[in-house]
Amino acid sequence: MSDINWTEKVNPLIYRIQRQDKYALNTLYELVHCRLFSIILRIVKNHQESEDILQEVFIKVWGQANKYSGTGSAWGWLCVLTRNTALDRIRSLGTHPQISLSDDDKLYLGQLFNEHSLTQECSLTTHSLDKCINSLKSQARNSILMSFIYGYSHAELANELSVPLGTAKAWIRRGLKELKQCLAA
Q1: Closest listed residue to residue 27, CA positions, set 40, 39, 42, 12
Q2: Over the stretch 65-77, which tens digit does the pLDDT of each residue have?
Q3: Rg of the chain over all Cα atoms, to the nearest angstrom
Q4: Where would I find the H helices in 45-73?
Q5: H helices of 45-148, where?
Q6: What would the pLDDT profile of 39-90 be if each residue is shown by its tens digit?
Q7: Has this prediction a pTM greater than 0.70?
């Protein structure tokens, strides 16, 4: 399924969930759970904890769907909700995500999963995401991961990478554009 068709399905589902449509929540889960689980697992690096957080995310989606105003994409709203829920869990446990910025340290989400518990659909989604993230230049890849996955603000990112704020923002912007193109292919 192309990302265009996929995005077109997510937005209306959120609107239906705002009207307490349980079928829409189930449909949304089937459509996005693999991608959201990948985001969570990349942050917490624990399969069982990631499953618990995914459940918490969907409870929040059900209870907080009215907070989605329609500005921006529903997928973006889901990603932020998911990332924040995972980061909140890490903070509550008193731990911090492990970040590796080595150019030689390629990211393979499939290695983080318990391979026996993956559906074929999740495995394909994970492989596509790995391929696209790893195709980015290291500056863009690291900037995106640090910002969107590990919760760095743009200012913290610029400081951590010892670059001007505008440079850090440009790396993210270019990387997201390339990532979107790769995932749509």
Answers
A1: 12
A2: 999 988 777 888 8
A3: 16
A4: 47-64
A5: 47-64, 74-92, 109-112, 120-135, 138-144
A6: 888 788 888 999 999 999 999 999 999 999 887 778 888 988 998 899 888 8
A7: no
